[in-house]
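This section describes the prediction task in plain terms. A model, or a person checking by hand, is given the sequence of a single protein chain and must write out its three-dimensional structure as a string of tokens. No templates, partner chains or ligands are provided. The sample shown here is typical of the held-out split.
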Amino acid sequence: MLKTIFEHGQIDFETLKSRAFNHRWAEQEAGVIPLTAADPDFRVAPEITESIQEYISKGYFSYGPALGYDAFRSSVASWYSRKHHLDVDPSLVLGFNSAAEALDKVAMLLFEDGGNALIPDPVDFLFQTSINRNNGSAKSFGFNLDDGKINMNQLIEAIDTDTRAIYLCNPNNPSGQKISDEDIRQIVQVAITHDLYIVSDEIWLDIYYEEQLKSVAAYSEEAKKRTIIVSGLSKSFGLAGLRIGYCICPSVSFMEQLLEKSGHIMTIGGLSTLSQVASTAALTKCDYWLDDFRSHLMDVRNYLCSELNQVPAYKVRVPKGTYLAFIALDPNLDESKIAEDIKAKVQVALVPGSARWFGPAASGHLRLCFSTSKENIREAVSRLKDYANNNL
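The expected answer:
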């Protein structure tokens, strides 16, 4: 039965058109294929909905514990032990209302007295946004779109006495490239030398097509002591609407300070009990679903990249992780205008690689999310080919 979940005929497009926002089905004109926000088009694993149904059947929606349910925190810790080579103390896990909120609260703590952080270019805009809105500033270092290599000289030269942290996203959004083991080890050593935190966005860590990826904190004991892990279940298990995020803290003292910033104790913040129930089911019962999801994504990725790379106007580097394809255009073209023109003429919605979304190094690119059916991707590819043949 499971394999049908990822087939075109099993996608409930009518429901998506009423529920899938953030530039997706619910916000597009009829006929547009939205390959925009990184959110799957598939139903979640049945164990997740069953766990929610069982919970709500009792008819009680009481406050949960400020620190989160023990079962939720333990499921996150166990997942990292099983999947990402890291032993985690469940008491250092703190849930948030999305990974984005976790990034925001971490920045609130790191930059309460000012300071700066180093972020890769390109990378998702939430790094810059969370730092800037919390009294910090961001300086960028180069991330090679072809091989995922970090410009280490640029990174080191950017460090000053006000630098608080180095931010990483592995695999990288938008490129889908993995940071090499060598570069991570060097960054850990730089962090040790300059007494910096590493903020590791690991929300894509489970969407990788070769081997299981290690958490940055798993590279050494010293890495574990200074790495702040931020993640969630929106990408891996399709739970964006449940707003499930969490932080794995490097120490008890950091955990206590972050808890104070979170507002959990005062009931200002906190992860909903339903979200924790869904998360626990996903992380303890749904490995098989994620395995099949990755298999489907790999098939779609291979088809997409092969087809688009036959078009001279497009260049697609095969992503090692994520379900994002970063399409390079002629550098003289304006990616935002091209994205608008593609949508208007062939009805495919993409995200332009503008500095607003990903930083200056993303210019001249279009980001395509392929977490949909192969049939949708076939149709989108056909339309993108038509557009290139007639307009580029």
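For orientation: The chain has two domains: 2-45+287-391, 63-285.
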